């Protein structure tokens, strides 16, 4: 009897504790599901010793330009007098290590130093609206479109330590999504995965499934890897004069006088015969450069971060591991990067198709004609300054920069629709989701500008309740282009 009383008492106490939790469960019938923007890398700063008086920003690096120029010049001088590349190479490696070193991870792939990103948590209604109202471009301009579509109390920003293992980070994203569900009173969320946010979203879907997810928008997302990281990690370096300066040119957007001058200068550099010997020399010295870049810099910085390995595509993954694993990489490190590669990356199509067949809406935004990071053989691929178009689109067939697929080219799949761009550059029929993948020509990586036509298109996208397709709205066909300078307009590709 005493035992029974005890049990009853315990049940009563448990229920009375649980009651406030049940009472706090609100539901919202506003019809707009909350939007969580899953951020990319490099948007918010990382600090050393965060929260202490000794806190200092270490990423993006805060270079001491004067010191760098002095040391580089010293290295160059010693190179000239000694007829050896080594002094210059050493100086460059020392500078690069100093800039990137604080971000390095340890043998297991955890942060080596007490370094962490600034985190923005909670609904936008709890933030100062200037955070997104004053944002001229990129993620917070996208947040602004989302706020316009569903209201600040239904829009959340999620950022994370992108250096670390995304499958470990997925636990944190899962907790965040549950928090958003509880705070907004909606059973599902919609994820806007920007750039590396695509990696984090894929890791979450693999680990936690898609039951809490209504929609995924991949915006310039790295969910299918990056060609140039794949190439660099296998020790490949190649320099193409035209691609190199063409890429520098696309980095400058804006319309003032200095930009026009810069453009002309880059254009001249891209084509002048005077620089050809320099590029021939660079390509002959790639072994020496590699010895510095790979051994002294990347193996101590970028390749110590499990997050960087999520970009490596399958065709070179094992080769890249042989070349680029940090010297001290532990079994835990290898297990972590293998888990993402073999369980998430190589199953990306299955993971997304399973979500789509359960009714999860999937939309992809991919940009082209803005160049690729020109340090490997993928320099002539189309890209958005950073991610190659074939990757950010989920598998489009894309002609090399400056060429077309050819007059005789026949669309490969989905023949009931036209998925060829009018400029002959893209066949979207080979994408994972050919009917809900949009291509924006001349648009930069995550290039959403405040009050632009693109921002308006995103507001439209965020307002759609059912799966939009490239046939849903005549204003928004599959292939659109913006004016590369202002990035404010949108018109169908001609
Ligand atoms: Zn609501
Ligand atoms: Zn189709």
Kindly estimate the percentage of residues that lie in beta strands according to DSSP.
5-15%
Total number of distinct structural domains: 2
Distance between the termini: 84 Å
Number of strands: 13
Strand order of the largest sheet: 5-1-6-7-8-11-12-13
Classification by helices and strands: alpha/beta
Bound molecules: zinc ion
User: Which runs of at least 5 residues are low in confidence (pLDDT < 50)?
Assistant: 15-23
Report helical residue fraction. 40-55%
Q: Give the overall shape, derived from the CA principal axes.
A: globular
- Look at the structure and give the mean pLDDT: 91
Radius of gyration: 25 Å
Sheet with the most strands, sense and barrel status: 8 strands, mixed
- The number of helical elements comes to 18
How would the blueprint of this fold be written?
Layout: H1 2-24, E1 35-38, E2 46-48, E3 56-59, H2 65-82, H3 86-100, E4 115-117, H4 130-133, H5 139-150, E5 155-158, H6 166-184, E6 189-194, H7 197-208, E7 213-219, H8 227-233, H9 241-251, H10 257-271, H11 276-284, H12 286-297, H13 306-309, H14 317-324, H15 331-344, H16 348-357, E8 361-368, H17 389-392, E9 397-398, E10 426-427, E11 437-441, H18 453-463, E12 479-481, E13 491-492
Parallel strand pairs: 1-5, 1-6, 6-7, 7-8, 8-11, 11-12
Antiparallel strand pairs: 2-3, 2-4, 9-10, 12-13
Bound molecules: zinc ion (ZN) (2 copies).
Residues 28, 30, 32, 154, 184, 186 line the site of one zinc ion.
């Amino acid at each position: 009897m005493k035992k029974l009383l005890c049990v009853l008492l315990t049940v009563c106490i448990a229920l009375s504790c649980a009651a406030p939790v049940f009472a706090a469960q609100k539901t919202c019938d506003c019809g707009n599901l909350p939007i969580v923007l899953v951020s990319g890398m490099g948007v918010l700063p990382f600090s050393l010793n965060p929260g202490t008086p000794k806190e200092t920003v270490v990423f993006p690096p805060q270079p001491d330009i004067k010191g760098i120029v002095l040391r580089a010049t010293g290295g160059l001088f010693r190179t000239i007098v000694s007829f050896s590349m080594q002094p210059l190479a050493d100086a460059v490696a020392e500078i690069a290590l100093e800039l990137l070193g604080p971000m390095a991870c340890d043998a297991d792939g955890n942060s080596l130093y007490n370094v962490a990103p600034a985190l923005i948590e909670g609904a936008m209604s709890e933030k100062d609206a200037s955070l997104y109202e004053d944002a001229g471009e990129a993620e917070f301009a996208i947040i602004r479109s989302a706020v316009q579509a569903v209201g600040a109390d239904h829009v959340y920003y999620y950022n994370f330590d992108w250096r670390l293992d995304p499958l470990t980070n997925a636990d944190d994203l899962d907790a965040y999504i549950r928090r958003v569900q509880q705070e907004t009173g909606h059973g599902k969320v919609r994820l806007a995965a920007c750039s590396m946010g695509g990696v984090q979203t894929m890791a979450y879907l693999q680990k936690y499934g898609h039951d809490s997810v209504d929609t995924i928008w991949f915006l310039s997302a790295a969910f299918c890897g990056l060609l140039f990281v794949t190439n660099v990690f296998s020790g490949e370096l190649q320099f193409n004069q035209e691609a190199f300066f063409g890429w520098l040119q696309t980095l400058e957007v804006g319309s003032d006088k200095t930009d026009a001058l810069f453009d002309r200068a880059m254009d001249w550099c891209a084509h002048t015969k005077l620089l050809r010997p320099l590029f021939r020399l660079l390509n002959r010295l790639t072994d020496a450069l590699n010895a510095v870049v790979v051994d002294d810099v990347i193996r101590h910085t970028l390749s110590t971060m499990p997050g960087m390995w999520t970009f490596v595509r399958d065709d070179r993954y094992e080769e890249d591991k042989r070349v680029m694993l940090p010297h001290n990489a532990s079994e835990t490190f290898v297990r972590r990067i293998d888990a993402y590669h073999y369980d998430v990356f190589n199953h990306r199509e299955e993971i997304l198709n399973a979500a789509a067949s359960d009714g999860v809406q999937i939309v992809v935004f991919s940009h082209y004609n803005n160049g690729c990071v020109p340090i490997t053989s993928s320099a002539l691929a189309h890209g958005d300054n950073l991610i190659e178009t074939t990757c950010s689109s989920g598998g489009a067939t894309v002609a090399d920069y400056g060429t077309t697929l050819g007059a005789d080219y026949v669309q490969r799949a989905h023949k009931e629709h036209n998925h060829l761009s009018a400029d002959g550059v893209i066949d979207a029929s080979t994408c994972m989701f050919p009917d809900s993948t949009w291509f924006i020509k001349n648009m930069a990586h995550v290039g959403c500008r405040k009050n632009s036509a693109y921002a308006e298109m995103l507001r439209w996208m965020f307002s759609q309740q059912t799966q939009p397709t490239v046939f849903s709205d005549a204003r928004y066909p599959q292939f659109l282009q913006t004016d590369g300078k202002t990035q404010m307009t949108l018109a169908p590709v001609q």
